[in-house]
Amino acid sequence: MRLYSLSVLYKGDPKVHLLKAAYDVSTFNFFQRSSVQEFMTFTSQLITERSALGSRASVKEQEYLCHVYVRSDGLAGVVIADNEYPQRVCFTLLDKVLDEFSRQVSKMDWPTGSPATISYSALDGYLSKYQNPRDADPMTRVQAELDETKIILARKQNSCCEIM
Amino acid sequence: MAESPEEVAVLVQRVVKDIRNAFQRNPHIDEIGLIPCPEARYNRSPIVLIENKLGVESWCVKFLLPYVHNKLLLYRQRKQWLNKDELIDITCTLLLLNPDFTTAWNVRKELILSGTLNPLKDLHLGKLALTKFPKSPETWIHRRWVLQQLIQENSLPSLATKGNLGAAPVERIHRLVQEEMNVCSEAAGRYPSNYNAWSHRIWVLQHLAKLTVKVLLDELSSTKYWVSMHVSDHSGFHYRQFLLNSLIHRTVTDNNILVQNQMVNEQNPNLQKEEESAGTEAVCAEEQSVDLPRRLDEEMELCNELIDNYPGHETLWCHRRCVFYLQQHLSNKLPLMSAVVSSVDSSDESLNNSHHSPAISHMAQAMDVDGLNESSSKQGYTQETKRLKRAPVQDSLGPEMEYRFVDKVLSTCRDGDQARFATAYRKWWTESYDLKKK
């Protein structure tokens, strides 16, 4: 049961920008870690591009599950986890992070931001804390709309279809 | 880029030497890996040592592997001689690239048997290979062979000081067991449901640790967190089922001896069997520390908690079936255990505290050995046995609890898989257990 990455992005028109990210690749083989991290950065970006504003989805990519939440104001968050990590905790986490981020980082900085320019440092702490879902926030029931979140099987990244 | 046979030979010799030097420079290497690197950088060794990690750049593997593989086969076919050091280096290189190459492990077996190679080196090499190939069957198989060698060596008193392991024999075995538990745990973490790792772990408990109550209990507590964080790992949960099952067998066997001894002693009060009574006391002490029904209850609680927190994992439902079955299995041994029951009143408070069937709470009383030495216990044995054999093992409380649990899950869960598993569980339970009670 593992979280691998937590990213905040901005879904601009037309491009998606990475604003800030945290990674935990410690469970991977030492020499694989940098390429795994690259893969996660790329995948987070791609999935945000393919998701519509105001949507939540869980996309299966190889043996990972990528949980994405794109708010209607364009702020987006992606959690990449394994297939044991409970889905609802991921979305609770994303809600929380995006909420906090939007209060701490001015909206004006989103369209042009990058990890170097954005000052928001809580992601590493969240990623670490949520590694054990039971240590993190209590398991509260998330809103009913999450029940409709389906797991989409993506065979290849390129064939990842437009998520509603 | 090396292409001609001579260049390849030079490259390979250099790489094999680099690997050997790396191990000599750093005896604490704890992980190996392949570095994706399609082309050689000019004049740089493909062997990379960073912190305690040993990496091989991928470009050299296509030259290295066939060459050393071939060299070892030529040696085996007696077409080319290799001295002992060369054999050790070549097999080491080979096994780090492909640990399922049985011939290489077998060459090392010969080296161990001839006394040239320290078997502990093979345990270390195997451990490294498992960091990259956590399932590798040949690595696990060779590991068991090495451990058997070490056990044999351990049991020969003449080799006690000369042996490969330091310290006293019991201490050595204990250390070996602990190390094996660590290796298995790491390998299990690197690959989901790593059957080979978990069955090796079981083998070690059976052959090195001899399935003592202490080791079984230790393992139960040390794997609890692990399975809670790997809720879809069938092999991990199966391991716990094995531990509980072994505990039942162990305790029942010990208890049978206990009861038999008691009856023998009562019939022959003049019989002075000091050894037996001492042994009985030891068994009694061990058995006293295992409250089996409580352990099973705790396991059931753990299972329920995980099912609630992590919906949609079939492993947990399978585990629940098994724990339930073990509880039934245990309570079926009740007649013999009832020898130690001083009173079996159904109105006792343990019934209120227990969340499960009264048969289990009766069991909780049965495990209390305080009544054992009462002179009336022999009389009580006959009466209680008759009573319990007549009455059903569980009353109506058991099925209700199960139905209640499943219904609760079905009414509150929103996960399709969870609903499916809960329904299947209810069907299984109804067909297996409810009808029998009618």
Automatic annotation (TrEMBL), chain A:
Residues 8-127 form the Longin domain. GO terms for molecular function: SNAP receptor activity. GO terms for cellular component: Golgi apparatus. InterPro entries: Longin-like_dom_sf (IPR011012), Longin_dom (IPR010908). Its main location: membrane. It is a lipid-anchor. PROSITE patterns: LONGIN. This is YKT6 v-SNARE homolog. It comes from Catharus ustulatus (Russet-backed thrush). The gene is YKT6.
From TrEMBL, chain B:
The keyword Disulfide bond does not apply. The keyword Hydrolase does not apply. GO terms for molecular function: protein prenyltransferase activity. It comes from the Eukaryota. Residues 373-383 have a biased composition (Polar residues). Residues 371-393 are annotated as: Disordered. InterPro entries: Prenyl_trans_a. GO terms for cellular component: cytoplasm. PROSITE patterns: PFTA (PS51147). Keywords: Prenyltransferase, Repeat, Transferase. Belongs to the protein prenyltransferase subunit alpha family. This is Protein prenyltransferase alpha subunit repeat containing 1. The lineage of its organism: Eukaryota, Metazoa, Chordata, Craniata, Vertebrata. The gene is PTAR1.
